[in-house]
Amino acid sequence: MKYAAGIDVGGTNTRVALISETYEVIDRKQFSTNGENPEETLKKIRDIIHEFECPIEGIGISCPGPLDLIHGEVLTPPNLPGWHHFKLTQHLEELTGVKVYLENDANLACLAEAVTGAGKGKEYVQFLTISTGVGAGFCTGGKIYRGARGFAQEVANSILWKDGPSQGDLKKGSIESIASGTAIVTRARAEGIEAEHAGEVYEKAAAGNLKAQEIMEDAYEYLSSFLGILYGVLDPDLFVLGGSVALKIPGFIQEIEKRVRAKVYDALQDNVHIVPAVLGEDCGLIGAACLVFSSQEL
């Protein structure tokens, strides 16, 4: 049996797991990510890996983008300010003596769902996570499609609404500025609606709050338009939706699928299949292990 270390670096926590080639999570540890000092985080990763009982074939690491996948460098993830332009794979390989494979977190979630999750057995799998932000991945034949420079599926800044809302470094009217959980809550608070997460905005909309209804309608409408565009461009077998907004708001995926069907060509409506992600919070870890094992097959 072969094993890999799967690592999921988040803005809040980092998780490290020992995963078998059958994608069983054998052991896992979690600790707080140091967003200002990547070296401290990598040393903790090294120490955990050295405690694993089984030798590993490699290390797969999931990290928020944008990333330079060709050079193994973290570019400018907003929640990891001290990691900007940090050569992650080089430093972790030096610390562990093991080959490291870096990938965008949404790409790895897509890979996990394509290989062993909701998209298992499908040739073309499109993944979209709707949570704090909006991230995406596309897999063909169980392999990540990265594009010419590794930036394929960096969809957060896709502009759909002229002079629409914006947040952070994103442009006005970007999909993340409309449909992410952060965007939904930010717009709600600007309208005087008290909410800690998007689910609360949904609840207030369901209770009759007109402003909350407008915000949720924008999220449904622009997100379904975006998925309709992706269907026209990529023609996936399956569209997998993950993230807290998609998975925790009642009826969210069904509403999106209904609207997408109404927006594609009539002849293509039966091709629209949108399903929930099934691997939960382990998708990044499992995807990281998939990356190790699939890279060894090349």
UniProtKB/TrEMBL annotation:
InterPro entries the record matches: ATPase_NBD, ROK
Family statement: Belongs to the ROK (NagC/XylR) family.
Source organism per UniProt: Anaerostipes butyraticus
PANTHER family tied to this protein: BIFUNCTIONAL UDP-N-ACETYLGLUCOSAMINE 2-EPIMERASE_N-ACETYLMANNOSAMINE KINASE, ROK (REPRESSOR, ORF, KINASE) FAMILY
UniProt protein name: Glucokinase
